[in-house]
Amino acid sequence: VDAGARAHAPAAPPAYFDLVLSAETIYSTAALDALWGALRVLLRPGSGHALVAAKSYYFGVGGGVAQLVERVRADVGPDGLARFEAERVATVEDGVSTRREVLCIRALEGAASLMTTASSRREE
To answer: Which of 5, 23, 30, 96 fits 37 for a cystine, CB–CB 3.0-4.6 Å?
Structure first.
């Protein structure tokens, strides 16, 4: 687990989660990093999903859906395989305000090593 994920992940996650819902939580790069750090260790490997609803881009602060998708796709294990996948499942454009999107982030089997690493840190 990288230093960024450790800084933002809960100190003692209670368990894996099958579903995490999030809205308007990636409004800056710092908030985006905090959310991604938590999701990385909390989603159940192989079946955990997060639905993240957010603006496509938050002007002036750097957060947004594309930045979160980049982080998800860049998260690979030591074997080079992806640990998570992200899919845009909805886009809402009302013609008045900024476009909003809903992402579904799924933890793949390779994500299991993240929780194992986090658990072993707590036991030290």
So the answer is: 5
Secondary structure letter of residue 44 according to DSSP: P
Q: Is 52 helix (H, G, I), strand (E, B) or coil?
A: strand
Return the structure tokens found at 24: 């308007």
Taking only the tens place, the pLDDT of each residue in 60-105 is: 667 788 899 999 999 998 888 999 999 999 999 888 778 889 999 9
- Phi-psi map region of 95: left, alpha, beta (phi>0 left; psi -120 to 50 alpha): left
d(CA 86, CA 100): 16
Segment holding 50, helix H or strand E: strand 49-55
Residue 119 has phi, psi (to 5 degrees) of -65, -40
